[in-house]
Amino acid sequence: MTSEYMLQSQAVEAAYGQSKILWGVDLNVKKGSVTTIMGRNGVGKTTFLKTVMGLLKTANGEITYQGQVLNKLLPHKRARLGIGYVPQGREIIPKLTVYENIRLGLESTKEKTIPEEEIYDLFPILKEFRKRLGGNLSGGQQQQLAIARAITGRPGLLLLDEPTEGIQPSISQEIAQILVRLKEEKNISILLVEQKTDFALPITDHYYFFSRGKVVHESKATDITAEEINKFNSI
Ligand SMILES: Nc1ncnc2c1ncn2[C@@H]1O[C@H](COP(=O)(O)OP(=O)(O)OP(=O)(O)O)[C@@H](O)[C@H]1O
Ligand SMILES: [Mg+2]
């Protein structure tokens, strides 16, 4: 029987050296969903995504992707299985062109060629700017580039860490629409970290709220109001 979940995290703990940050995170991402992690600064949202990606060791607990245990796999192996990652702050390479940045996305996946038409259909601006240096793009364009890079390997699950940080609201709307298209047209499940309710509300299927390295509340989108979201987001 295939699982209804893309990702399952059970009692996951992680630390930077002696400093424990995650204290037993239980979280599931349903296939075909946008699952959103909210919570204040410093509660461990990025740390959790890094642990899912394998950039940080799972000290205790278990993470599975489509039923396969990830705990001991290196990040590039997890990418090959189909997990894409858009890190906080985007981390595009400023001195490489847009096209070269996109091509970097192939390196850790099993795909051999960039799905150029699909990418430019989602992000027309990247076609126009494909010879420009990444560093010369605006924040919103860099975010689009980081998403484009992460989907070149055709992931089944995309991890996105605060994609609207430092981006003007009109561009945030475009990014929200892109995420919905990735879910609906490309069959990509999404684990989103986001602090802005305005952005999360129209696109989220399921919420998890973090505080001090733990999940303090979770809810289906249909069972929670905007007021409750704001309340749990600031615990
Ligand atoms: N490389 C690191 N070494 C040591 N401690 C770290 C490191 N990165 C983060 N931390 C600490 O881990 C805790 C959780 O940080 P994390 O970046 O996961 O929070 P976050 O919820 O993503 O916050 P933000 O919303 O500001 O991005 C914080 O106390 C932070 O200071
Ligand atoms: Mg963070």
Descriptive report:
This protein is an alpha/beta fold. The protein has a domain at 1-74 and 197-235: 3-Layer(aba) Sandwich (Rossmann fold), CATH 3.40.50.300. The protein contains nine helices and ten strands. The chain has helices at residues 45-53, 75-81, 98-104, 116-122, 124-128, 139-151, 169-186, 197-200, 226-233, and strands spanning 5-16, 19-30, 34-38, 60-65, 68-69, 83-86, 157-161, 189-193, 206-211, 214-220. The strands form two sheets. It has a six-stranded mixed sheet, sandwiched between helices. It has a four-stranded antiparallel sheet with strand order 2-1-4-5, with helices on one face. β9 and β10 form a beta hairpin. α3 runs parallel beside α6. It is globular. The chain binds adenosine-5'-triphosphate (ATP) and magnesium ion (MG). Magnesium ion binds next to α1.
Condensed summary:
With 235 residues, the protein is of the alpha/beta class.
Beta strands, count: 10
Order of helices and strands: EEEHEEHEHHHHEHEHEEH
The named CATH superfamily of the domain at 1-74 and 197-235: P-loop containing nucleotide triphosphate hydrolases
The portion of residues assigned to helices is 25-40%
By secondary-structure content and strand pairing, the structural class works out as: alpha/beta
Count up the helices: 9
Distance between the termini: 38 Å
**Major sheet summary line:** 6 strands, mixed
Provide the list of bound ligands, each named once. Answer: adenosine-5'-triphosphate, magnesium ion
Q: pLDDT average, as an integer?
A: 96
Spatial strand order of the main sheet:
6-7-8-3-9-10
Shape designation? globular
Write down the CATH class of the domain at 1-74 and 197-235.
Alpha Beta
Low-confidence stretches: none
CATH architecture of the domain at 1-74 and 197-235: 3-Layer(aba) Sandwich
Question: CATH topology of the domain at 1-74 and 197-235, anyone?
Answer: Rossmann fold
Work out the strand percent. 25-35%
Give Rg in angstroms. 17 Å
